[in-house]
Structures are given as structure tokens and as C-alpha cells.
Write a structure and sequence with these properties.
about 30% helix; four-stranded parallel β-sheet; globular; 2 domains; about 25% strand; about 450 residues; six-stranded mixed β-sheet; 12 helices; FAD/NAD(P)-binding domain; alpha/beta
Length: about 450
């Protein structure tokens, strides 16, 4: 056993240090020599059934916000490119706006009624339903389960994976049970279906939510979700509460707006506890342990520590000693260090940008210009910062939202927010803007 310090004392002593830790993460385990050295498995099967390239071939791995935007706009900026999208999922579903489905602000079709095939046809590129299993950078071959694809340029945009060992859950069986029974809701579309069912069937008690440390996907997402679940409990008069355990010393973004919602809309329904990082989970007891206390719960959705997709590590593209297993790329040009034929975009990037839809979309607009120019032998375009526009619905009835609009700037070797505009006064007009913003991103990827 060990003595626990008070939460108040810990917050006072560690507010600055905790912010630095949140940006880097710790205790991530062993990184293989192969991942650091840049080697990867090479499959010897034949070529994938594709037509002969009609120009410089660019292969894009991953049809999320980043990959879909890259595929469409590289072709627009350089029509001579032969673009091939490789995606393992059968259907598309977005992470952005997904919280809105829980209180029925939107229907499921808003998130998932989008076709990879329509995007490829409208963007004039090829779509291959396949799983990437290897990479040979010497011969420029992407290895998939339907054969290899030769490339002139490669864009890897695989998104994120969960990392349960950060929460003391090391057994693979326990990890699978945790993901099955208490899904994080920031990766697979099927997670949202389970969480929606949980909220609908909840008949009282403690519904636990958490905010992970590090640079996790969608900084405001866990806070928004807590508000919207609380709004359902409030409307349905469910005798329970949402317990929100935050690993960080305070709300990470739009702090005043969220605290106002917690205090003014959900007092007695939503309990927010900062500086409460999960250190272990007892699935049998339904109990979460932090450095300070233990919290029993009846149901919930547990958001794991976020790392880059395992594909980054498996393909030998990972930055050495990176706590979140992110790609080893130039932070302005996005190409792999030492290889200007391979690029990584989206949430597997190592820069401390928000891992969010609008960030990935605007970033991809710039990187697609860069790859298109390099493929044509033209000078690199001037650097363009990603733009993070983020709305958060804090009330479902009436619908009210808050927002932030920010860019990024590197100064003294450190990236930070730049040109930040925050509107933390919740309002119905911002809720309307939120829904239109989401539709705009879908249109940009699929039309």
C-alpha cells in the first residue's frame, strides 16, 4: 500500500507538469528494433488486380477524413496522377459529430450514409477494398491481402489505435473484454451502436466516462459526450449520474463553456473530477482506480490512451521512443524522414495538433498540394497550418453549442495554438452551425 495525497494538493503542485505530460505520455512499453529501424514484413504474392498506371501512381492507405481528402485533392491539383485508395473497412462512419446521435439530435444516416465508391467515382480515383499488411520501400511496393501495389508516392493515413496497458490492463483477454463491454467510442462505428444502446437501457446508478492523458482524438469529445448523456438522463428523469474522470488538471479546451454547462445544466447529474487518471480497472468488481480513489460504476464507456495506428509501427514508419507510437515525419513537409516518397497525414502525425476532423481535412488540403507539386517536379508550396474548427453540443433540448477556431504556429521549436477564436457562450445558432459544418466536411470528401 501507499499513502494517497489529496486531490487539491496534487492539482496545486502539478498543474504545469501535468500539461507537459499530457502532450507526451509515459510508460508505453517496449518498442521493437524492427519498428525503429524502418524494416517491415514483405509479402511475396503477386500484384493486385489493377489497371496499368496512367501517370505517377499515388497509393493512399486509409479512407478516413485525411485519406479521403488527400485522394480527392491530389487528383484535382495534379490530374495526371493515378490515385489508388486502399481501405479495409466495408462501410464509412465518421467520428466527428458522432456524439450527436446519442440524444437523437441526428440519425445514424448522418454519420454513415456515405459511400467509398461514390467518393472514388466523384474524385476520379480507384478504390481497392483491401488490408495493408506490409511495405517494401526499396522496390516501392505496398503489400495488401489482395496483392502488392507499386507506387511512386505513398500516403499513409491509418488513424489511431487504443493502448490499454496505460490503464494497467495488460492481459489481451481483459483488453478485448474491456473494449467489448465498455467501448471508447472514438474508433469504430460499431462502438457508437453499443454506447447508444447502453444509454437507452441505463436505469440508474453511475455511468462512468473518462478523459485520457496525452494527445487523444477530439479534445472536446469526452466533455461533449458527458454533457449529452447527462441531457438524456435529465430528460428521461433517470436516477443516475455521469461520472467524468479527467486525467488532466482541468478541461482541455473550451473550459469556461463546459464548466458553465456542468454547473448550470447538469448540477447533480454530472460529476466532474480533474486530475483523475485511471491506473487500473477491476472488471469483475466494476471499479476504476485512480491515484487518489476508487470509483465503482454500473456502466459506461471507457476511453483508452490513444496511440497511432499499429500500422505505423508494423510498416517501420514510427518515430523512435515516441510515447504515442507516431510517425517519423518532417513536421512541415509530412514526408517520412529520409524518404520523400512516403507521407503520413491525419491522427498518426507526431505534431501536437488536435486529432480531429477539421484538422485532418485542412491539413490534407495542404499536403495534397505538396505531393501533387512534387510529383510534377514543381517547387514545394508554402506551408499552410491546419485549421481546427470544433463545435461542441452542450445541451440537447434546446440544442445549444460552443465553439473554437484555431491554427498552429511553431516558435522556438515548439508548436502552439495560434489565432484562436473561442465562443463559449452556448447558443442555438452555434448548434445550427455545428450541423452545417459537419455536412460541409462530408461534401468535401464525398462529392
Amino acid at each position: 500500500m501507499h499513502n494517497k495525497i489529496s486531490r487539491r494538493g496534487f492539482i496545486k503542485a502539478s498543474s504545469v507538469a501535468a500539461a507537459a505530460t499530457a502532450a507526451t505520455g509515459v510508460g508505453m512499453g517496449i518498442i521493437s528494433d524492427a519498428a525503429v529501424a524502418g524494416t517491415a514484413m514483405v509479402n511475396t504474392q503477386g500484384a493486385a488486380p489493377l489497371p496499368k498506371a496512367g501517370g505517377p501512381r499515388v497509393v493512399v492507405i486509409g479512407a478516413g477524413t485525411s485519406g479521403l481528402t488527400m485522394a480527392k485533392y491530389m487528383k484535382q491539383y495534379n490530374p495526371k496522377l493515378d490515385v489508388v485508395m486502399v481501405e479495409k473497412r466495408a462501410m464509412y462512419s465518421s467520428c466527428f459529430c458522432s456524439n450527436l446521435w446519442y440524444p437523437d439530435i441526428i440519425g445514424l444516416e448522418y454519420l454513415a450514409n456515405h459511400s467509398f465508391l461514390d467518393a472514388a467515382r466523384n474524385g476520379d480515383y480507384l478504390f481497392v477494398s483491401a488490408t495493408c499488411i506490409g511495405l517494401d520501400r526499396t522496390s516501392r511496393k505496398v503489400i495488401t491481402d489482395v496483392g502488392y501495389i507499386k507506387y511512386d508516392f505513398l500516403v499513409v493515413a491509418p488513424g489511431i489505435d487504443y493502448h490499454y496497458p496505460r490503464y494497467g490492463v495488460n492481459d489481451p483477454g481483459d483488453q478485448l473484454i474491456l473494449q467489448r463491454d465498455y467501448p471508447g467510442g472514438f474508433m469504430m462505428g460499431t462502438e457508437h451502436v453499443t454506447i447508444k444502446r447502453k444509454i437507452k437501457d441505463f436505469d440508474g446508478g453511475v455511468f462512468v466516462q473518462n478523459v485520457p492523458p496525452g494527445n487523444y482524438r477530439c479534445l472536446s469529445g469526452p466533455y461533449e459526450r458527458a454533457c449529452l448523456i447527462a441531457s438524456v438522463f435529465k430528460k428521461e428523469k433517470i436516477k443516475g449520474k455521469v461520472l467524468l474522470l479527467d486525467a488532466n488538471p482541468d478541461v482541455m479546451i473550451k473550459k469556461d463553456g463546459f464548466h458553465a454547462a456542468f454547473d448550470e445544466l447538469y448540477k447533480g447529474i454530472l460529476e466532474y473530477l480533474p486530475s483523475s487518471e485511471i491506473v487500473s480497472i477491476d472488471l469483475a468488481k466494476k471499479e476504476i482506480n485512480t491515484e487518489f480513489d476508487s470509483y465503482p460504476f454500473d456502466d459506461g464507456a471507457i476511453y483508452p490512451f490513444v496511440r497511432a495506428s499499429r500500422l505505423i509501427e508494423n510498416l517501420g514508419l514510427m518515430r523512435k521512443d515516441d510515447a504515442q507510437f507516431q510517425a517519423n515525419i518532417d513536421d512541415r513537409k509530412y514526408n517520412l524522414i529520409g524518404d520523400e516518397r512516403v507521407y503520413c497525414t491525419g491522427d498518426a502525425r507526431p505534431m501536437p495538433f488536435s486529432k480531429s476532423g477539421n484538422t485532418a481535412q485542412t491539413e490534407a488540403h495542404y499536403v495534397s498540394k505538396l505531393v501533387a507539386a512534387r510529383a510534377a517536379g514543381k517547387p514545394d508550396p508554402s506551408y499552410e497550418s491546419p485549421n481546427t474548427i470544433c463545435y461542441s453540443m452542450v445541451n440537447a433540448d434546446p440544442q445549444e453549442a460552443i465553439s473554437v477556431n484555431a491554427y498552429y504556429k511553431k516558435s522556438g521549436g515548439v508548436w502552439a495554438f495560434d489565432r484562436v477564436k473561442v465562443n463559449e457562450e452556448r447558443s442555438m445558432p452555434q448548434a445550427t452551425q455545428y450541423l452545417e459544418w459537419g455536412k460541409g466536411i462530408y461534401l468535401d470528401m464525398f462529392e
